[in-house]
Design goal:
mainly alpha, single chain, globular
Amino acid sequence: MKHPAKTTETTAPPAGRNGAEAATSRAAVKKAAAKKAAKKAAAGAPAKKTPAKKSAATEKPAAAKKTAKKTAARKPESRVALVRRARRINRELAELYPYAHPELDFTNPFELLVATVLSAQTTDLRVNQTTPALFAACPTPEDMAAMDPERLEELIRPTGFFRAKARSLLGLSAALRDRFGGEVPGRLEDLVTLPGVGRKTANVVLGNAFGVPGITVDTHFGRLARRFGWTAQEDPEKVEADVAALFPKSEWTMLSHRVVFHGRRVCHSRKPACGACGIAPLCPSYGEGETDPEKAKKLLKYELGGQPGQRLNPPAGFPGRPAPPLGATAS
């Protein structure tokens, strides 16, 4: 029979030990356990798993890291810093796109007005492929106002929403004939009275047919203005007002072309090519898209992606290929 004292002696310190001796004993036990674990690890034994609570405390989840990065990138900046950064972006875009231009084919204000109305809810490329036949059939407001509605609808069908657009074209052509002597007016307040013509369309016509500075807020411009931190607004007129306050009036028209060029070619809505962006260091939204340079390069569109541009008749100095006519395939 085992002596009770021996059992007690092997499992706990005798009642006569003081606190210091007890602590030393516990430390020795921990040290021995640590040595044993180290020997097992050296021999190839699986290491003991770290409790989940400690792991979560020492390692941030990927989503948290991404959120922290975006928050840090969007720290508030002073008004002066915002203006300086915005204008530098404009200068950088001017170097990236020295050939930026309106991407609708036109030869006079009336053709630009009609093409801009047709560009709603479709691409400039599709408009440019459609207007040659349209302008051949009705080159003036008087001709278009007298056209049979069904014939007009058929001519503009490729641009989509052709019935509503046909009504707008017939209405604005009649208004130009009856109220403006068959000429497109050169004032914003007159243009916006025409059927189907809003502030965006009016600014396109004024800036590119009459040389009157204006900011054109389409879907691309609005998206990039928010990504650049120039505005937080969604309403086009509020976006226009916020951006106009950052730039001299003389820059408004070309700024619009450069931003739209960049939005169509690089800073796409769903998959921005961040890794191929020439203004990435200035953009607080860098990282929303593909950052790997090689992968990002494959996302580039139009002339930057080795494809034709949007115009059938691009201006001199355009580095890409002309777009093919309607029904033709790009070679």
